[in-house]
Amino acid sequence: MPGPMHKQNFQKPKSAGKTLARIFGYMLHRKWLLILVALFVIISSGAGVVGTYFLKPLINQCIIPLIGKHPQGADFRPFVQMIGMMSGIYLLGALSSYVYSRLMTQISNGTLNAIRKDLFNSMQDLPIKYFDTHTHGELMSRYTSDVDTLREAISNGVTQLMTSSITVIGTFVMMLVLSPILTLLIIVMLFVMFGVIKTVGGKSAAFFKKQQKAIGAANGYIEEMIEGQKVVKVFCHEDTTKEEFAKLNENLREAATNANTYANIMMPIMGNLSYVNYACTAAIGAMLVIAGHMDIGSIASFLQYTRSFSQPITQISQQFNAILAALAGAERIFEIIDEKPEEDDGYVTLANVTRNQDGSLTESENRTGLWAWKHPHHDGTVTYTELTGDVRFDDVNFGYDENKLVLRDISLFAKPGQKLAFVGSTGAGKTTITNLINRFYDVPDGKIRYDGININKIKKDDLRRSLAMVLQDTHLFTGTVRENIRYGKLDATDEEVTQAAKLANAHGFIRHLPQGYDTMLVSDGSNLSQGQRQLIAIARAAVANPPVLILDEATSSIDTRTEALIEKGMDELMNGRTVFVIAHRLSTVRNADAIMVLENGEVIERGNHDELISKNGKYYQLYTGQFELA
pTM for this structure? Predict the structure, then answer.
């Protein structure tokens, strides 16, 4: 599993075209708004193009005739009317810009809402293996930096590209109308500009990809260090973490500097080229006017079009970099959305049943408290097997890596109501066994049967609904104490929640909290002690009332005195249930019906406490060592 010093691996965008098409696929869910945006963009851009053309009649028909005339005898009405028309056109363009900007805000927010929803939903469907092989920071960067760059591109980039494209096309047409000769000069300069964009933009795009990677790596490292700050301080690794972050931060600085250097020089280069273009156009246009091939109004309009033509090209070149960065982020988002979800080919489900007088079971729509496995067969018949909690392993081999087995030829059984304990050194495979029981991982070799049914045939949701786990690493959600306990059974009544808390001996300290069961827990329950958090986790398992209970170092965070207080409650919780216990404190497994001693993924000893002590084997060594330490 990745640790604090883990270096993240990022893939470059593989297909910008497909990614762009996919983003537009999300946007097309609001196609009527997009149509309105396109309409108002055309009006806005068209107003600018048409308004510029009015310079020609304004100069030729309204200004030149007034030259040399006395103000009292001059007729300014055509001039005022032309200015009024131009003002109306530009005002219409400004209003259209306001409208499409507001509409585009709705489209971008709605699009990102759908993408974030799909991203989160897809993440919920991923197997545990995915989270075991990816850091939290790496995953969080999809929701932060990647979504942010995509938001910027959708909200500003799309309309900017549309506006600039329409302006360029409209301006080019009007320039051809005014002067084909000068337009030829513009075309030559256009090829020069495109050459600059291709050269500078290509280098900028490569560095923007590196910048996105560096941002994800830096953000991931920061989040991991925040989560593990206590561990960092305990081992005095502050200087080491500073050095590691300095390297990541330097990589980000270098990538960002290079990316923005090329991006920032684009504007000055394009600006200066436009000035050169303007000067050349003005000089040649003046000669055409002198030669009588153009009028002053036409050259004035054409020069304004020259400025209008180069500016949107510059804007397109700027948006090009932002869009590339957004596509890189979007592809990382879609990688998770497209990740293969957790497979579930099970078809055996849990059903509420009632027991008939002859002992047979009948499915019931009401909650009866009696559960059975509903097993459909190929011939169309359905059988019901009562859920009792009989779990058996038959020659199970398993490894997280295909080339390295963690479990070898594991065969064991836990009859209904039995308490089975696993002991052994770290890495012996204890937790792996529990991961296989609830199908966090599927076994490639061997079989695990639950009430006589191969668990691969049981739907994962139904299988996990029949189990409850109390993990060593307790996680509490932001919410009240009551809500955290009820997480084990969402429809549990307040009375059931209280009863579960009493069963776990958590009721006493909960009553003394500021708002009792309605006390808000934040930051993973940081306002509680570690032992109290563990007690709430035990109560959460108790309220689920499952036939099978898995306790993975469930009391590891509870002191000896607290452990003694809950021992009776735990015994009551485990009564009548099949229980799998993983424990380092061997005193907690003495009353187990069977103790499995694991070493290097194999069961080397099995028996109850007295039997294993009498063998003077591995368990005896572990137990006597524990006793001497105690």
Answer: 0.70
